[in-house]
Amino acid sequence: MKLFDVYPLIPIEPVRAEGSYLWDKQGTRYLDLYGGHAVISIGHTHPHYVQKISDQLSKIAFYSNSVIISLQQELADKLGRMCGHSDYQLFLCNSGAEANENAMKLASFHTGKKNIVAFKKAFHGRTSLAVAATDNPSIVAPVNETSNIHFLPFNDEEALEQYFLKNGNTICAVIIEGIQGVGGVHVARPDFLKNIRNLCDHYGALYIADSVQCGYGRSGKFYSHDYANVSADIYTMAKGMGNGFPVAGIAIAPHIKPKHGMLGTTFGGNHLACAAAIAVLEVIEKENLMANALSMGNLLIGQLQKISGVKEVRGRGLMVGIELEIPCNDIRNILLNEFKIFTGSSSDKNTIRILPALNVGSSEMEYFLNALQQVLSIKTSA
Ligand SMILES: Cc1ncc(COP(=O)(O)O)c(C=O)c1O
User: Fold this and answer.
1) What are residue 286's DSSP bridge partners?
2) How many CB atoms lie within 10 A of CB 370?
3) Would the CB of 102 count as within 6 Å of ligand 1?
4) Which residue owns the Cα nearest ligand 1 atom 3?
5) Could you read off the pLDDT of 148-171 as tens digits, one per residue?
6) Largest Cα–Cα distance in the chain?
7) Cystine design at 171: which of 74, 151, 205, 209 (Cβ 3.0–4.6 Å)?
8) What is the mean pLDDT of residues 13-24?
9) Per-residue pLDDT tens for 287-298?
10) In angstroms, what is the span from residue 379 Cα to ligand 1's centroid?
11) b/e per residue, 138-169, with b = 16+ CB within 10 A?
């Protein structure tokens, strides 16, 4: 059987990884500023993470949600404390799309309504409702098309208010990334998020904070939505949560009441996933990685702004978009092939996405800045 060919591949096979580095079969070392799409949060093969998963594997790896799994409560307690929402409720699942799917479904159950506001350039995943709330018609199959999702311009308060004024009573949720990732790293303005909170309160809708990519400390705060100083009703999380182990979740405000059978999953919250997620939180806390994400991000953003050929730098902490004056494809290829640096792309052809591990150091940042400066000075003078 051959593989279903849906991914354009980087022609490199990493066979070993440690911290912010990857090695291929030939022993060539690569600096990983992409983190397998923002997934690597505490660094590849962190010893505490390896130990915790290995220990768990030798005890019990899996049982379904039909039994008590006390690791789930341990994870919920730790997560609640670290994100500042101890009073929220945790539902565990397996991927970002599944988290968003459940969040939107829950909003509809809770409010009894069915219209959802999403934003232009949003990416929320590839399952039925998540993909319908994703602003990319090329990945929406006919069966996923629905009139229940309404796309509004991002950060446009006037458009949001007008939409609520006309349709407020039909809306069950507003879903928004704190920092749009796939869309090219666009930060939601704090005032815009505050306005979402107010309108949702006024019209009885739920505010869903998609923190799948921008959450889990990457922005320097636990959820990047926290920069607005208002709480969401539901936070969705995935990527950085397991540092590569598939685990995701939704944190649900206390006013939303559960009912048996309302949500469910076979694999979500299994023993190994919980062990991985607990290890990640322990490392983030012990090694002060949110502070490191903020200081490394500030260093990077400050220096990038001085490089000629860089048009705009967007983002917070270690979720950074570098918009070049020219398309970034060639530049990324040179960074990879000549300087051995993995970077990310986005739907905007000029924007490079930088999503390193939260414990990346200043020497890695400097190596990248130097490389980018060299590549851009050759390319823009050619
Ligand atoms: C903001 C956001 N939401 C949801 C998803 C979907 O996550 P997954 O691929 O784990 O389903 C992604 C993936 O890139 C994402 O960036």
Assistant:
1) none
2) 13
3) no
4) 124
5) 999 999 999 999 999 999 999 999
6) 64
7) 205
8) 98
9) 999 999 999 999
10) 33
11) eebeeebeeeebbebebbeeeebeebbeeebe
| Among candidate residues 188, 154, 222, 212, the one with its CA nearest the CA of residue 314 | 188
Question: Does residue 379 surpass a pLDDT of 90?
Answer: no
Buried b (16+ CB within 10 A) or exposed e, 225-234: bbbbebbbbb
Q: Is the pLDDT of residue 374 over 70?
A: yes
Place 382 in a pLDDT band, splitting at 50, 70 and 90: low
**Beta strands 14-18 and 21-24: pairing type?**
antiparallel
Q: What is the mean pLDDT of the chain?
A: 97
Enter the tokens of residue 6: 């849906």
Q: For residue 96, how far is its CA from the centre of ligand 1 (angstroms)?
A: 5
**Strand extents, DSSP E, the chain:** 14-18, 21-24, 29-32, 89-93, 115-119, 149-152, 171-177, 179-180, 186-187, 206-210, 234-237, 248-252, 310-316, 319-324, 341-342, 351-354
The finding on whether 213 has its CB within 6 A of some atom of ligand 1 is yes
- Domains of the chain are 14-46+289-381 (3.90.1150.10), 47-286 (3.40.640.10)
Q: What are phi and psi of 274, to 5 degrees?
A: -65, -40
